Amino acid sequence: MPNRKNIWPKNAKGQFYVDRTCIGCNQCCTTAPRHFQMDEVEGHSCLVKQPTSPAEVRRCQEAMKGCPVQAIGEDGAPVPLVSPAIRVA
Ligand code: SF4
Known about the structure:
Blueprint: E1 17-18, H1 27-31, E2 36-39, E3 44-47, H2 54-66, E4 72-73
The structure holds iron/sulfur cluster.
Iron/sulfur cluster binds at residues 18, 22-28, 44-45, 67-69, 71-72.
């Protein structure tokens, strides 16, 4: 189970996060590269951009389901989703 109290400090604040049980397999970074990035020095990934649309939420959930050690959680405080109709480029 991912633990919100044991997350990497570099995670962007919000709904999704990577906790310290990450083994650096890179799966989430491949599945959702806009949201997860590897810290090559420390050897783990972090959630660097919270999803802001339902499609991005689904992409992050796909990465979460594929994590082999269940290091990704989504029980943080969600950021408001932006409607595509009012999104600023
Ligand atoms: S899929 Fe899980 S173990 Fe692999 S890099 Fe992402 S958070 Fe770490």
